[in-house]
């Protein structure tokens, strides 16, 4: 009897400790990666913040916009950011530095049910470029050094199609300060071409069903008649919704449940937050991103 009593007491103590830990979390912090302009990213995240308060019982949910991807990466590594939805290369950066820092818990399913998307290389149509060879010696803009579609995948996949390393084929390369700014830079002539992303599904006039081009068309700052797609990568796994492992397990479970239910409870909020006509969140494991982790290690090294 005493052995059973000891087990019961230990279990109770563990439960009370876990509950106290959860109750001690007074704020959740959502990181935004700067891929879109700050005001629009915050506006699309406000409904998520409000819903998380109700779903988790945490009284305050704060939104932290960063000017670039690395700010959120460092926040997740350091424990100053609790939740973020980013590309697979950003997750890879974290996993390579500290595999225990975050869990990738969910990713999106697109309009066709796919859990993948594409890196797209675009240029102004009036430049007259019709094929990759036309870009030899030209200026190529990347979105962000921690972007999967805007930097990592083009560096891995483009060389096979241009017959040379990216740095040798193009006359100049650089970074455009996020996907939206990069495409605006292509339009204003800062770059001859630039790398961004989209689902590759749906109408070109709408910028496809999801991705940066779609978002820019919806906001009225891009007419796809003004640009041309010159290259498309192999399919990339959709980026993860990541949760810090510094949070208690019961709280992480509530966060996951909230996001899984969001598409059916508030489709407009879900599609705004995820950037297009996505249909659902689906659960993922770290292994889903093994190829991107390996690619990042080979190209970037961290």
Furnish the topology, listing elements before pairings:
Elements: H1 2-24, E1 27-32, H2 38-56, E2 60-65, H3 69-78, E3 83-85, H4 88-97, E4 102-109, E5 116-124, E6 139-142, H5 148-162, H6 166-169, E7 172-175, H7 179-187, E8 193-198, H8 212-218, E9 227-232, E10 236-237, E11 241-244, H9 249-265, H10 267-274, E12 280-283, H11 290-299
Parallel strand pairs: 1-2, 1-3, 6-7, 6-8
Antiparallel strand pairs: 3-11, 4-11, 4-12, 5-8, 5-9, 5-10
Helix pairs in contact: 2-9, 2-10, 3-4, 4-11, 5-11, 9-10
What's the total count of β strands? 12
Order of helices and strands: HEHEHEHEEEHHEHEHEEEHHEH
CATH level-4 homologous superfamily of the largest domain: Periplasmic binding protein-like II
Low-confidence stretches: 1-22
Counting DSSP H or I runs of 4 or more residues, the number of helices is 11
Q: What amount of the residues lies in strands?
A: 15-25%
Biggest β-sheet description:
6 strands, mixed
CATH architecture of the largest domain: 3-Layer(aba) Sandwich
**CATH domain topology of the largest domain:** D-Maltodextrin-Binding Protein, domain 2
General form:
globular
What is the overall pLDDT average? 92
Distance between the termini: 54 Å
């Amino acid at each position: 009897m005493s052995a059973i009593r000891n087990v019961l007491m230990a279990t109770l103590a563990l439960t009370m400790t876990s509950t106290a830990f959860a109750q001690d979390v007074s704020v959740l912090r959502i990181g935004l990666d700067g891929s879109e302009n700050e005001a629009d990213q915050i506006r699309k995240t406000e409904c998520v913040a409000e819903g998380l308060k109700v779903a988790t019982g945490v009284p305050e949910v704060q939104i932290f916009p960063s000017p670039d991807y690395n700010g959120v990466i460092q926040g997740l590594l350091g424990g100053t950011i609790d939740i973020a939805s980013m590309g697979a290369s950003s997750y890879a950066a974290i996993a390579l530095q500290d595999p225990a820092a975050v869990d990738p818990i969910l990713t999106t399913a697109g309009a066709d049910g796919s859990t993948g998307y594409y890196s797209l290389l675009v240029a102004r149509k009036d430049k007259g470029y019709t094929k990759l060879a036309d870009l030899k010696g030209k200026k190529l803009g990347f979105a962000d050094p921690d972007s999967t579609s805007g930097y990592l995948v083009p560096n891995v996949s483009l060389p096979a199609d241009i017959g040379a390393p990216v740095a040798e084929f193009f006359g100049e390369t650089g970074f455009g300060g996020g996907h939206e700014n990069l495409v605006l830079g292509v339009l204003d002539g800062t770059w001859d071409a630039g790398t961004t992303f989209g689902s590759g599904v749906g109408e070109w006039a709408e910028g496809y069903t999801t991705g940066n081009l779609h978002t820019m068309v919806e906001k009225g700052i891009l007419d796809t008649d003004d640009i041309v797609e010159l290259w498309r990568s192999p399919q990339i796994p959709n980026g993860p919704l990541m949760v810090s492992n510094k949070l208690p397990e019961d709280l992480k479970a509530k966060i996951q449940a909230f996001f899984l239910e969001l598409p059916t409870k508030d489709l407009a909020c879900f599609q705004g937050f995820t950037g297009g006509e996505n249909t659902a969140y689906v659960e993922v494991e770290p292994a889903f991103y093994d190829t991107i982790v390996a690619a990042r290690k080979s190209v970037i090294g961290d």
